[in-house]
Amino acid sequence: MGTIYIDDKAVEFEPGQNVLDAARKAGIDTPYFCYHPALGAAGSCRICAMETVPQKEGEKPRTVMTCSIPAQDGQQFRFKSPKAKQIQKAVVEFYMTNHPNDCPVCDEGGDCHLQDTTISVGHAYRRYDGQKRTMPDQFLGPLVYQTMNRCVTCYRCVRFYQDYALGDDFGAMGSSNHVLFRRTEDGAFDSPFSGNLVSVCPTSVFTDKVYRRKYSRTWMLEKAPSICSGCSVGCNIEVGGREGTLRRVQPNNEASKVNPYFICDRGRYGSHGTESHSRPKYVSEQGKVVKTSPLDALKIALVRAEGHVGILGSVEEDLTTNLALKAIAKEMNAPFSPFISPQQEALTKTAVAANHNAPSISDIEQSDAVFVVGELTEHAPMLDLAVRQVIKAKKDVYVLHATPSHLVTALNKLQQGHVKALAPSQWQDCLTQINTAVHDGAVEDLWIKDVANALKQAEKPVIIGVAELLNTADISLLNTITESLAPTAKMAIALPSAGSVNAALTAQENSCAELMAQIENDKIKTLVVVGSDPLNTNHPHWHALHDKLDQLIVIDKVLTQTAHLSDTLLPLAA
Predict the structure, then answer these.
(1) Coil, strand or helix: which one is 406?
(2) How confident is the model over 527-559, as pLDDT tens digits?
(3) Counting CB atoms within 10 angstroms of each CB, which of 89, 269, 285, 460 has the fewest?
(4) With the CA atoms of 427, 535, 506 and 229 taken in that order, what torsion angle do they form, in degrees rounded to the nearest 10?
């Protein structure tokens, strides 16, 4: 901890911070474009100018760009000096010579960093009357829209996409005053994090294409903090709605301990599935809409059941929903389970218990060796993004997987020979050998030796598994390996669903097996299903149980196969 002085105000800083970062955290509204807390600075925008205060006799004040000056104890700067203010104002005026004056129709209006900066530095009148430079836009798929004329060449987009997310299908092209940021050909981005271009761009070159289709000014949105339900990571998000419809999802704020700046594309765009035209909105009986309230319809259906009721919740639902279902089941003396199968219940409970020493995203980013088992990108994308920071830092990352994935592609480009592809049925044998090697036993496979050595030599090793691709024995082996490493070693199991933890906490022992047994023994004739789809093609055992039921009541927000086969269908809030 040290102290610098800006306009005679004492500003404390942490080791490794630059002057701009320290000033921002102290509440000093220093203008910037190229700087981003997660990406650092490129020094390209030249707007974060301050003037130094001479410390020695004969020394003259210098104008410096604070994003590139490491904070050192005792430094003194003038943010409000006439020279610094003149430079800030001149830089914005220079940018505005080419930036289109389209604020009234721009999607970013009200959220625009350039707008805010232009006002804060005092640029109000246009002196340039020449022709503006124009740039061609590019079609970038269904999620991101480009308006290239707005670019101020801060390089944030390409620094995030290439350097942070390790993508390679987007970059800078051209030179001088004609630099374009684009793909080599039109089409959707390959990266599962491309939507973050919308968040990092300070001048609305990249905007949310989904949001454009149902656009609303930011001050007209009803906003609320929330938790992403796309996977088990639980990213902090801000949800914006208007007139009862979802309009926008974006990262919540920099104070988040989980994801201060970014979210994956699934988290940003996946929630728009709640706007599907096929979503159940009314009560229906035998496929026909009934004019009654959902609560009245449920009461009538339960009266018909005459007490022979079972309740099936869901690992997709939140804690409040499953607790409410459990309380209702207790009141009715009915069995309750949030799991579709005994295998799912056993695996989920084992995985949840194994996460007692799980690392945070920050822990993963700062680790010096990572071992991943499974396709992490498809099951926990933000853990994937954290692992990419380890790859970028040139620390050892090893992946045991079954099918191609984005993380494997990125790793193969930067660390050759760190990937092993095996069928999941062979993982247990491979993990057993890694455990043997960690305990200095003899193994023949060189890749397994490399994994074991990297984990043993690391000071902060992290092991990450994907629950849906593992079995309970695999998870037990990963736990044994972790316990054999340094005391700082951590292990995370990416859980099957966002509600996996609450499902494990609310379910009694063997809850699913008990529910299925009572249906099989004709003790249950009415099944209430909330948020689950037991009658899809992946669960054939439920079809035989369905034949034993007199009544199937489904409460859901998605028109699933189970909803199609229901006797009574009630809409569920998303």
Answers:
(1) helix
(2) 999 999 999 878 889 999 999 999 999 999 989
(3) 285
(4) 70
